Amino acid sequence: MTYDVIVIGGGPAGASAAVALGRALRSVLLVDAGHPRNAPADGIHNFLTRDNIPPAEFRAQAHAEVTRYGGSVISGTVVSATPRSVTLADGRTFEGRRLLVTTGLTDELPEIPGLREQWGHGVIHCPYCHGYEVRGQAIGIIGTSPMSLHQAMMWRQWSDDVTFFQHTAEADEAALLPLRARGVRIVTDKVVEVVSDGPALSGVRLSDGTLVRRDALVVAPRFLANAEPLASLGLTAEPNDFGSSVPADPTGRTAVPGVWVAGNVTDQMAQVVSAAAAGLMVAAALNMDLITEDTAAAVAAYSPPSGQAQ
User: 223, 238 in Cβ contact below 8 A?
Assistant: First the structure.
């Protein structure tokens, strides 16, 4: 069959769009590779009525909701696409009238031994996502970019015990002054290792061998759009100060006719709730685009009854 819309990516943006399109009586295929960005996290926050739900449970419920409204959900990785078809790694091909890409992004982490193993637990980045859970604890910010100074200033809101490890971030005294004024401790030695005691974070080891104990560490990843399925369409992610993203107009429409994007692949700062909202809004725009096409086809084929005015 030819679906009205094929959605690549089963996260909050893709699943929300698929539900909205199903409720609009559109045929939808949702293709999910099964590698969600938030898989390491213990729970989702800032989503009304869904606070602290594990990401895997949220995803399962979202996919069940897609099928409840008539959508199809399949597992697979899209390796190439056209505006009207997708090809999966296993060779399967599916056709659709529109393509919505919601493949999210990848967090590029600093190359510090032991850091990746703590990602999503002892090592975090967003105070609105995780700040409440570590409030009042000993927090360390590992500086890698100008964004790290911004993070240090923000995280001071959640704790009186904040240490800024300057690491590779360039910052003169004028830039550090606001942190000092807020009581943030400054450490200039480089971090050479993130130290854990079993599954629990212990702290960081500095270049002089000192172990500074911390309950939580904060880093500033580079947010890189997962734009691989778009390459065969001639669409690429554009670099920016935070990583890369796929450009689109406010409705999610890209430069390639028939291809739309939503969620973190185009909005690096979207949290789960805002990505889901974006999926809904793009679905509405997609549905209207299909209505316009259907109406044009109906008008072209319309033949008024005999004797009726043209």
Answer: no
91: its two tokens: 């060779």
pLDDT given for residue 307 in this prediction: 65
Q: How far apart are CA 105 and CA 95, in angstroms?
A: 25
Residue 48 has pLDDT above 90, yes or no: yes
Residue that the structure tokens 């703590």 belong to = 118
Would you place residue 77 in the very low, low, confident or very high pLDDT band (cuts 50, 70, 90)?
very high
Query: Any idea which residue has 């609105």 for tokens?
Result: 128
**Contact yes or no for 251/282 (Cβ under 8 A):** yes
* Residue 41: half-sphere exposure toward Cβ, Cα within 13 Å: 24
The answer, as to whether pTM is greater than 0.90, is: yes
In the chain, the domains with their CATH numbers are: 2-107+222-301 (3.50.50.60), 110-218 (3.50.50.60)
Pairing mode, if any, of strands 2-8 and 93-101?
A: parallel
Residue 145 CA to residue 78 CA, distance in Å, equals 33
Q: How high is the pLDDT of residue 276?
A: 98
